[in-house]
Structures are given as structure tokens and as C-alpha cells.
Amino acid sequence: MGLHTFQTETILVIVQIDKRVGFYVDNSLGIPLTIGIIEKLLELYNFAELVTIKSNIALTGGVDKDGNILPCSSEIIRRKVEIVFFSNCKTFIVPKEDELEAKTKADELKKEFPNRNLDIIGIETLSDLLNRRNLIDIRK
């Protein structure tokens, strides 16, 4: 999951699954799971800061051990854009490598539905996401 610093505190989280109850092969849940785990750990251990994803935001992409965001495939990102496009989400966070493909698909859909605006934001690292206060709320 990597390291992220909140002011002077460093947090290292290692998740190990000893018993496998199913198989999951994809990078799609890395970002949401990582942010969700950070949210719950900070809440559980009463840290001074709390982290939450702002409302109406969808996320996709894997996260490697160094905090780099891993891409999905072109086919998968196009399907996800279509799903998010027809949701109430206003912003879709995608891996930087998938940003162009995601924007292309969103533009195709916008031609048919011109009143729908979906902001596509590509990120390269977990720190990049955590440092964007328009996407992530970190408060005391």
C-alpha cells in the first residue's frame, strides 16, 4: 500500500490475507480499498486527522507497494466510464495511463447526452490523490 505522511506522523499499513475465500484478478479496487482502509484505521485509532473521499466521486485503479497507481485495460476503462457516466457521480478518478481513453469515451457519450458533465481526473500516485483537497477531505 505504501507510505503516506500526515504532518509528522508516518503510517505503514500492510494487509495480509491468510485465507482466500475467492479469487479477484484486476487492478480496479486498489484505490478504493486503500482509501477505505486509511479512513477506517484513522477513525479506529483516533488519529488527529480523518480522511474521506468527497461525495459523487468514483475511483478505479490498482495501487502497488510504492503507492503508484496501476492502469486498467482500455476495454475495462471504457466500460467503467460508461457506468459512471450514467450514475450520479460528477468526477471519475482513473489511473493516469487510462486518462486519455477515459476522456475519449466520456466525450463520445457526451455527444449523445450533451447536458451530462463528467470530470475525468488521472492520477499517478496515491500521494497525488491524497494531496488533492478537491477530491479528498483531510480534516482534524
Tell me, rounded to a whole number, the average pLDDT. Answer: 82
Anisotropy-based shape: globular
Q: How is the main sheet built?
A: 3 strands, parallel
CATH topology: Ribosomal Protein S5, domain 2
Count of extended strands: 9
Largest sheet, spatial ordering of strands: 4-7-8
Q: In whole angstroms, how far apart are the ends?
A: 23 Å
Low-confidence stretches: 1-8
Q: What is the class in the CATH system?
A: Alpha Beta
Query: What is the level-2 CATH architecture name?
Result: 2-Layer Sandwich
Q: State the share of residues found in helices, binned by percent.
A: 25-40%
Total of DSSP H or I helical runs spanning 4+ residues: 4
Radius of gyration, in angstroms, nearest whole number:
16 Å
Find the structural class using helix and strand composition. alpha/beta
The secondary-structure element order is EEHEEEEHEHEHE
β content, as a range?
Answer: 15-25%
Query: How many structural domains does the protein architecture include?
Result: 1
Oligomer: single chain
Structure description:
- Mean pLDDT is 82; it is low at 1-8.
- The chain has a single domain (28-139), classed as Ribosomal Protein S5, domain 2, CATH 3.30.230.
- Helix 2 (74-85) crosses helix 3.
- It has helices spanning 30-44, 74-85, 99-112, 126-130, and strands at residues 3-6, 9-12, 50-53, 57-59, 62-63, 69-70, 91-95, 119-123, 136-139.
- The chain is of the alpha/beta class.
- It is 33% helix and 24% strand.
- Strands 4-7-8 form a three-stranded parallel sheet. A two-stranded antiparallel sheet has the order 1-2.
- It is globular and about 45 Å long.
- The chain starts with a strand and ends with a strand.
